[in-house]
Specification:
Length: 101
């Protein structure tokens, strides 16, 4: 495996994916309605757990949403997955991206 996993948005599957070379490490399911993106379920392939892949994937998904619309474009994030909610708790500098409750 390489040392730099990459995050890609797979619109056909409605998920973000973390790959290392040709190996799928983790996925983050989403639903995008234009105004908000719900991040619904993070899943790391069992053999790859405990290596920080969910955090890398979540950070990449958040960066993609921020870059492609974000609050300036009126788009917000709804963390439906407990892991994503926890990630936002640990990254308060990204709280402006959250949809109002």
């Amino acid at each position: 495996m390489s040392t730099s996993p990459t995050v890609t948005r797979n619109d056909a599957e409605s998920r973000y994916e973390l790959h290392d070379g040709g190996t799928l490490l983790a996925v983050l399911d989403f639903r995008d309605n234009g105004a908000a993106v719900s991040l619904n379920r993070a899943f790391t392939i069992p053999v790859h757990r405990g290596q920080g892949h969910a955090a890398t994937l979540t950070a990449g998904a958040v960066a993609d949403i921020e870059t492609n619309g974000g609050p300036a474009g009126g788009r917000r994030i709804v963390p439906m997955c407990w892991y994503v909610a926890q990630w936002f708790d640990e990254h308060p500098e990204k709280s402006a991206l959250l949809a109002p409750r």
